Every structure is written in structure tokens, then in C-alpha cells.
TrEMBL record:
Originating gene: fbxo8
Matching CDD domains: F-box_FBXO8, Sec7
Superkingdom as given in the UniProt entry: Eukaryota
InterPro entries registered for this protein in UniProt: F-box-like_dom_sf (IPR036047), F-box_dom (IPR001810), FBXO8_F-box (IPR048003), Sec7_C_sf (IPR023394), Sec7_dom (IPR000904), Sec7_dom_sf (IPR035999)
Protein name: F-box only protein 8
Residues annotated as domain SEC7: 135-311
Stored PROSITE patterns: SEC7 (PS50190)
Pfam families xref list: F-box-like, Sec7
Length: 316
């Protein structure tokens, strides 16, 4: 938006420049005994914001935060767009029209909850993004206490529809959901879990980095069990689907990727846990992994070890 917000219509720009020139002439006349003549302002793309505010205030320089109502509306909205919801509510107490602007609240909704079914619907008359933000916040808090009640709340308000793909997109693009409650919900709704896995794109990603990205959205359980096995199985198939060339060149398969993922998790625990004194060496990791995954080369397994050693846990 940059310079476009600072520009005014030509006539208004010329009038402001003339006012600035008159004020400069009066100042010069006061210093030089009235001998100065009116100076023509230099041509510019738009008036300086400092002089613009100074002109609006009657030529008196004031210190402190500027009054946003004295700025062009587009610039005031741009400044307020950097605030969070709490600060925006406080700003609305001072600048009521700007603080309640629908574009600001729409931006807050979509930046916090990236996908909702209501975004793609025709909005009814009198719809308010500010009210929608409060409903989304209330629903997220409800979800973090009880996942099923939270999803039911979203559906009752028309924010979400009961479809696995829509629910998966909502979870994928939202960062306010508690990962423990999310794990409980996905364990019960495997259809949503399947759609959530397909939203990941692991094309041209190194296996440990792809696994980290996967566990960043779908947190791994604290203990080994059926749910962890399900996650790794789904990840292995998705990784092979996204990288057919790599699978062909390295001779990988979903089963081989499954074994490598478990090896990476165990190696991560071994290298990062303070309770393990004798850390696994690179040679030991290659030897142990090759016993389970025969088609994988020593160089590839060695690069896996280096990645965990340098970057850290894959499921942290």
C-alpha cells in the first residue's frame, strides 16, 4: 500500500502545499522584518505527514501519539491492523469508527482461524466480523475444554459444517486448539484425521524435516501405542505419494518409510534425553537401521543421523 496511502487528490494536495507555503512565508516575515516573499513549494508526490498534521493543528507542533482521525482513513486502518483483538477493542473506545471497521475484524478472524465454512457462504444482512471473532474465540475455548462440545458450538453458530474435509481444514489452519484435546478428537474422528493428513505436502522434503512438519500439526502422543502407529502409517503413505521420484530412486516403500520413522523417533530420544549417557553413534544407527530396512543405502541413513544430531528431535 506504501506511498499510495500518502497521496491525496491533486487539488487537495495543491491546497495543502499552498497553506504550508503561506505559513513558511509568515514565519520568514517574522524573522526578516517582512522582507521575505512567498516561496513556492517544491513539487513532490504528496505532503509530508508531519507537516500535514501540523497544518491540521493550526501550525502548532505537538508531541505524543498522533490522532488517527486526522489521517487519511486508509492510513489509520493500516496502523490499527497491527493490533490484536484486545488492543483493537481499546482503540475502538478512542476512535470508534476506525476501531469497529469490519475489514480489521475480518483480518483478525482469518489470520487466527485461517479456514471456516462461513467464509465461503453468502453473509446475511447485518453480519459482523467482530461478533464472529468473539464466537470463534468462545468456540476455541470450549474446544480446549471439551473437543466435541467445541465442534458442536461451531456448527450451531453456522461457522463449520459437519464434513471431514471442512473440519480438517479448520484444524490445519488454526493454532488456538489445545494439542492434547486435538489428539483426543482426532483419535475419535479418524475420517477427519485422514483428510488432515492429505492436506500436508511433503514434496521434495527430507524425511526428518517432513516428519517434523507433520508432528507440528498433528502432535505425537507421549506414549507409544496404537494411535502413534496409525499416525506413522498414514504419514508413510502420504510421504511416498508426494515423492514418487525419491521412492523410485532410493527404493523406498511405505513399509520402509515406516521403519525409518520409528528409527528417527528412537534416535531423537537417545540423542536428546539427558537420562541416556551412552549416546548412539552414527555407525550403530546405520547398522541397526539397515537390519530393518535392507534397500536403504548407508549414505542415506547417515544423512538421517546427521539431521537429528544437528537439528534435534523430530517430534519435539
Amino acid at each position: 500500500m506504501g506511498q499510495a496511502l500518502w497521496r491525496l487528490p491533486p487539488r487537495q494536495q495543491q491546497r495543502l502545499q499552498e497553506e504550508l507555503a503561506d505559513q513558511l512565508t509568515e514565519r520568514g516575515a517574522g524573522r526578516d522584518g517582512g522582507s521575505s516573499q512567498r516561496r513556492t513549494p517544491q513539487q513532490c508526490y504528496g505532503p509530508d505527514i508531519y507537516h500535514l498534521l501540523k497544518t491540521c493543528r493550526g501550525g502548532k507542533a505537538q508531541h505524543g501519539f498522533i490522532d488517527l482521525e486526522m489521517l487519511p482513513p486508509e492510513l489509520g486502518i493500516t496502523i490499527l491492523s497491527y493490533l490484536n483483538a484486545t488492543d483493537l477493542c481499546l482503540a475502538g473506545c478512542v476512535w470508534q469508527d476506525l476501531g469497529q471497521d469490519e475489514y480489521l475484524w475480518q483480518g483478525l478472524c482469518k489470520s487466527t482461524w485461517g479456514h471456516c465454512s462461513i467464509y465461503n457462504k453468502r453473509l446475511p444482512a447485518g453480519f459482523s466480523y467482530r461478533r464472529l471473532y468473539l464466537q470463534l474465540d468462545e468456540g476455541s475455548l470450549t474446544f480446549n475444554a471439551n473437543p466435541l462440545e467445541g465442534i458442536s458450538y461451531f456448527m450451531s453458530k453456522g461457522i463449520l459444517v459437519d464434513h471431514p474435509k471442512e473440519l480438517a481444514k479448520f484444524i490445519f489452519y488454526t493454532r488456538r486448539l489445545n494439542w492434547k484435546m486435538l489428539r483426543i478428537y482426532l483419535d475419535e474422528r479418524r475420517d477427519v484425521l485422514d483428510e488432515l493428513v492429505t492436506l500436508h505436502n511433503f514434496t521434495n522434503q527430507f524425511l526428518p524435516n517432513a516428519l517434523r512438519d507433520f508432528f507440528r500439526h498433528i502432535h505425537a502422543p507421549e506414549e507409544r501405542g496404537e494411535y502413534l502407529e496409525t499416525l506413522i502409517t498414514k504419514f508413510s503413505h502420504r510421504f511416498c505419494t508426494c515423492n514418487p521420484g525419491l521412492v523410485r530412486d532410493l527404493g523406498l516403500s511405505p513399509d520402509a518409510v515406516y521403519v525409518l520413522c520409528y528409527s528417527l523417533i528412537l534416535l531423537s530420544i537417545d540423542l536428546t534425553s539427558p537420562h541416556v549417557k551412552n549416546k548412539m553413534s552414527k555407525r550403530e544407527f546405520i547398522r541397526n537401521t539397515r537390519r530393518a530396512a535392507h534397500n536403504v543405502s548407508d549414505d542415506f541413513v547417515g544423512h538421517l543421523y546427521d539431521n537429528i544430531y544437528l537439528i534435534g528431535h523430530v517430534a519435539a
